[in-house]
Design brief:
The chain is mainly alpha-helical and 248 residues long. The protein contains eight helices and five strands. The chain has a domain of 89 residues. Strand 4 and strand 5 form a beta hairpin. It is globular, with a radius of gyration of 23 Å.
Amino acid sequence: MNKPIPPNEILEKPKPPANESSVHGFEWWRRTFQYKTGMGLTAAEKKQYENDYEFVLQRKQCNECYQYRDWILQYSPTVIFMAQQIARLNSSGQVSNGQPSLKFDESKIICDVCPEWRSGGFHPELGILLCQNRIRDKWHLEDTLAHEMVHYYDNTRWKVDWLALKHHACSEIRASSLSGECRFMQEFARRGLGFKVSRGHQECVRRRATLSVMGNPNCKDEKHAQKIVDEVWDSCFGDTRPFDEIYR
């Protein structure tokens, strides 16, 4: 004979899983469903569960983000090249065994949760932030990291004033153009049949640079951002340093 279902008030509160893999176990799923339905739960208990589950999710995202980062730093030709160029600029004459010190400081690339809909960011004093909750996959992280490393390179070489709209726009044009995020397959995946092959790369770079400049506190609106991007376009789009040319 089947045992009767216990009343809601004596249902045991589930504990958070000990590790990420146990999230997928049947027991955690059963208790998760129980909590999602709100059976016998106080508002405080449900909030605690949500906090526990969010913590596990963020830890999983964080671990995955760092695994992707380390793989990309080891195998991506674009990122490896940018890391070498930044390290060369940072060496400032430091020599080890008769050779310039060309080690990039990986601690300058961190993963964290971002509230905005963005995949990464650069801060001239802190380094590169990868938004672990916005990264879709390893290849998305590669494009994001390459983009931010162009900003890192620009800031190291020219000491960019990031509040100056023309400085900001120039680096955004270069980052979108050189990182690979505007190559054919990426744009086709984003825009489908609306993508124009003939000038697709330039249109993508303009669009993404404009969106980034709009986030500058000194930018009034989209029209203002477009004007600034247009003013610096010729000199900045044509500047492919440290690459010899744009690789698509």
